[in-house]
Amino acid sequence: MEKLDAQPLYTRVKRALAERILSGIWAPGRLLPNEFQLAEEFGVSQGTVRKALDALAAEHLVERHQGRGTFVARHTSDTVHFRFFQLYDAGGRIQPDSRDVRVAVADPSGRERAALALAPEGRVIRITRTRTHEDHPIIDEQISLSEALFSGLLERETIPNTLYDLYQTDFGITVARVEENLRAAPASEATARRLDCPVGTPVLAIERVAFDYSGQPVEWRVSQCLTDSVFYHSTLK
Amino acid sequence: MEKLDAQPLYTRVKRALAERILSGIWAPGRLLPNEFQLAEEFGVSQGTVRKALDALAAEHLVERHQGRGTFVARHTSDTVHFRFFQLYDAGGRIQPDSRDVRVAVADPSGRERAALALAPEGRVIRITRTRTHEDHPIIDEQISLSEALFSGLLERETIPNTLYDLYQTDFGITVARVEENLRAAPASEATARRLDCPVGTPVLAIERVAFDYSGQPVEWRVSQCLTDSVFYHSTLK
């Protein structure tokens, strides 16, 4: 029987493991010690270790692969898309392509500086691209990153559709949470040109800040979407 | 030490209690037996019961009041607003007022019939109102309900700003989840008149279906919002 004031044992094991992952001591993709080794280390049963790992898996901090072991979770194109992309059509979550991708370095605007908490001399890398769905342009997107963190991006020949897996594998930056503010706005002349619609067409403007596990902002993004054939989906419980 | 394949004991107690609440055996506002009585009933320690109740409180199924005991959670105007309302301004979540409130019975449109899963002969109660923020009209709202479930609404003299607490106290219907689809759209002539804006002004159209604990749709709502001074906020983890 558990003591009155004690946390369940597995919760304490879970916290100890989560600390190693969130602190970066154990990097994304790393194989964890097996259940027997962890049980030895913490002086608990393998059942308790298994429950701790199950709880970490439920929070997407680890991934369990039958017969291969448990790994520190790594963002993949699929998991990133599933967790952080909310545009749907009647068939479900859409997977837009990208065209007219441009990457450039610039002095930040006031909004970029504030959103990314940039140092006084810090510059930004801007990625602009048009996202297409079934060959129609539907999103005019601008992404701003701190040059200090992401300078390697400038040497890349191509930019993939999903970026957070790239941030993790190439830059060691894991996006853990995004905050989005949505508004309806009239398409500007530039946006209308990129989306092939009349100036002033209503677009859904999604302004997003992405944060890493420590709570530091790592990306600022504005996506202006035509919503004739797609919509933004949200569940509240 | 816990057994290899056993759920923690408190999880099993939690599930048994959750079942009584979700099934309606224990109604909203009901005082639960005290920890000693529950421990006796389940043959576990009071510490285990306490953990089960903590877990239920974290899921908003019960509310614990120091010195008074634990109650089946009841929607209040505040908790409803906090859980199901996502419009913010720079100062935080806004609390709009209502004006021009109308309540009427009608034959359902095809969308109402589908969204509410109405019986063939079923009619709807429509509530239309204009929501204001700092005395400016910002939301043109239409709410559709099954007349079979909510006929008592027609006799009310006033309709409160938050409805889900009313649905629970007066109609025994608890909203547990809402699904929202958001689009940008041009204000129609009727919406423009109610929002005091030019026809065609971009509005954020939020289409919502609310579900009870059993997964049955109980409300369909379309809110068309001016987003000059407010925005829809969403967090993804």
TrEMBL record, chains A, B:
Domain of life: Bacteria
Domain HTH gntR-type: 7-75
Matching SMART domains: HTH_GNTR, UTRA
CDD domains associated with the record: WHTH_GntR
Keywords linked to the UniProt accession: DNA-binding, Transcription, Transcription regulation
GO biological process per UniProt: negative regulation of DNA-templated transcription
Organism: Dichotomicrobium thermohalophilum
InterPro entries membership: Bact_HTH_transcr_reg (IPR050679), Chorismate_lyase_/UTRA_dom_sf (IPR028978), Tscrpt_reg_HTH_GntR (IPR000524), UTRA (IPR011663), WH-like_DNA-bd_sf (IPR036388), WH_DNA-bd_sf (IPR036390)
Protein known as: GntR family transcriptional regulator
Coiled coil location: none
Molecular function, one GO term: DNA-binding transcription factor activity
